[in-house]
Amino acid sequence: MTTRTAVPPRVRRALARASEHGFHGACEDPVGPLLATLAAAVPPNGRILELGTGTGVGTAWLAEGIDRRDDARLETVELDESLAAAVRADDWPTNVVIHTGDAEALLPTLGRFDLVFADAVAGKWTGLDLTIDALAPGGLLVVDDMDLGRYTDPEHRAAVLRVERTLTDDPRLVTAPIPAGTGLIISTRRPDLPHDSRDEETP
Ligand SMILES: C[S@@+](CC[C@H](N)C(=O)[O-])C[C@H]1O[C@@H](n2cnc3c(N)ncnc32)[C@H](O)[C@@H]1O
Fold first, then answer.
1. Which domain holds residue 149?
2. Is the CB of 119 under 6 A from ligand 1?
3. Is position 158 within any domain?
4. Are the C-beta atoms of residues 126 and 102 closer than 8 Å to each other?
5. pLDDT at 11
6. Hey, whose CA ends up nearest to atom 12 of ligand 1?
7. 3-state secondary structure of 195
């Protein structure tokens, strides 16, 4: 397929910041346009969370998805204060909030989200359960860098398999691996069910 999504100006600036900072962790195609597409689908008053802001590439794509939607809100968390400050210095609408801090420490305090892009060590490779807990019913979780073929380090391969297994086996989630880019996994949190509703007999 040769379809190309236009790169929004804010994404271009975030990519330029990545070059300036020698930052190599920015999300790669097709994650960016996918994030924008999924962000555009959040419900009225929808909440979006990104773990690991980097230089703001994913943030900018997510923000593009909720462009001119005052009701929706995007929060992103970055541990590195200098990166967070550089991203914050860009021109963001007021419904985009950049937190500085440890994602794993902040997760239990942030509430529930309709879309989460887990792209930091914390909340993905460790503390994934906290991220799943932070999904609203019907909420979507996106993780990338899941293509096992890219890694030779046994520890990292084990970590990839652990994340994959957690997302696949969690009964609260419906999960699809998507073999695109660096390897994507998308999970939807099922609506919360009453404790015993699945055991009830049909009269
Ligand atoms: C893969 S990069 C994020 C890229 C960004 N999401 C994008 O799409 O361009 C991971 C980022 O997570 C940050 N990070 C690492 N540990 C973290 C933690 N415990 N809490 C929050 N951010 C963390 C790193 O500083 C780095 O900027």
1. 39-190
2. yes
3. yes
4. no
5. 98
6. 52
7. coil
Query: Any idea what the CATH number is for the domain that residue 120 is in?
Result: 3.40.50.150
- Residue 91, in any domain of the structure: yes
Calculate how far, in angstroms, residue 197's C-alpha sits from the geometric centre of ligand 1: 39
Q: How far is ligand 1, taken at its centre, from the CA of residue 25, in Å?
A: 8
Question: Residue 203 has what pLDDT?
Answer: 46
What does the block give as tokens for 15?
């990519």
80 close to ligand 1 (CB < 6 Angstrom): yes
* Assigned domain for 24 exists: no
Which residue stretches of the chain have pLDDT < 70?
1-3, 193-203
Which residues, in sequence order, are CB contacts of 165 under 8 Å at separation 6+?
Answer: none
Residue 126 lies in a domain: yes
Distance 40 CA to ligand 1 centre (A): 23
Count the Cβ atoms, other than its own, within 10 Å of residue 129. 12
Domains identified in the chain, total number: 1
Q: How far, in Å, is the centroid of ligand 1 from the Cα of 84?
A: 10
